[in-house]
Amino acid sequence: MPTTNGDVAVLAEDLRRSFGAVEAVRSVDLAVRAGEIYGFLGPNGAGKSTCVRMLCTLLAPSGGRAAVGGFDVVRDVEAVRLRIGVALQDAALDAKLTGRELLGVQGRLYGMSRKQIAARIESFGDLVDVAALDRRIGTYSGGMRRRLDLAAALMHDPRILFLDEPTTGLDPVSRMRVWEEVRRMNREDGMTIFLTTQYLEEADALADRVGIIDGGRIVAEGTPDELKRRIGVDVIVARVEGDPAAAATVVESLDGIASVAVHGDELDIATADGAAAVGRVAVALAAAGLHASQLTLRRPTLDDVFLEVTGERLS
């Protein structure tokens, strides 16, 4: 029986997972609305893959609860799996099969007829090269393999799609084709998409909301614009010759500075009015005997948000 409100496609409450003494996921709460693209970001080891595996019924939680498509991921495993598509980062594709054979096997696993399978494969013309589906998968490029894996996840027309770093390692053209298909599925089919990615620009371009996980907990969540606004309207990037920590102390003492983060020999300075502050930053550094070899004013990005809430950049 469904366990959640129909407006919520993916729900986690106090979700936890331990491996021995290691707490990989600690008390994660999230609610992804039906028809939403939710971007899930985190540094390596933050717990995002463990979360996704629990939500996809591939790993049992140690505590808390989760429901996907209205069904509990522990009690209603089959019901959840019927409603989701999953394209994990490491695609397990049999190189000896043709692409058409692989999609046919996937369709039959979900009880589709030959006619339904053929029609579904033809509908993937914008995602994969249908003419290439009669070649063995071993001859495919990395981009074609990734798009074929996505097509396999979509064979049974799921209402919720989990994508784990879907464009990692793809060339720019293949990446854009995947982006376009993700947007189309969400816009035209109303599909809910849970997207983990290592590309911040991908989350910025695709996600309605973003959750950032660090140390097994969600440390920030909101629309990309909301998250950017939390660190200030503008960012001044100052490359300093000398002691960056001393330079940060000087800049922090100025009026109108929201925060200063040190990254190597650079300072990321958040301020409400960058145009007014950039001159004062240069003068203050010079007065302290610190030379700024470069001062750049730009709008904040998700990378700035990520650095603020996790203390590191997402590489």
What does this protein look like?
With 315 residues, the protein is an alpha/beta fold. It is built from 11 helices and 14 strands. The strands form 3 sheets. A 6-stranded mixed β-sheet has the order 6-7-8-3-9-10, sandwiched between helices. The chain has a 4-stranded antiparallel β-sheet with strand order 2-1-4-5, covered by helices on one side. Strands 12-13-11-14 form a 4-stranded antiparallel β-sheet, sandwiched between helices. Helix 6 (172-189) links the parallel strand 7 and strand 8 (192-196). Helix 3 (99-109) packs across helix 4 and helix 3 runs parallel beside helix 5 (142-154). The longest helix is centred in the middle third of the chain and has 18 residues, at 172-189. The model has no long low-confidence stretch (mean pLDDT 91).
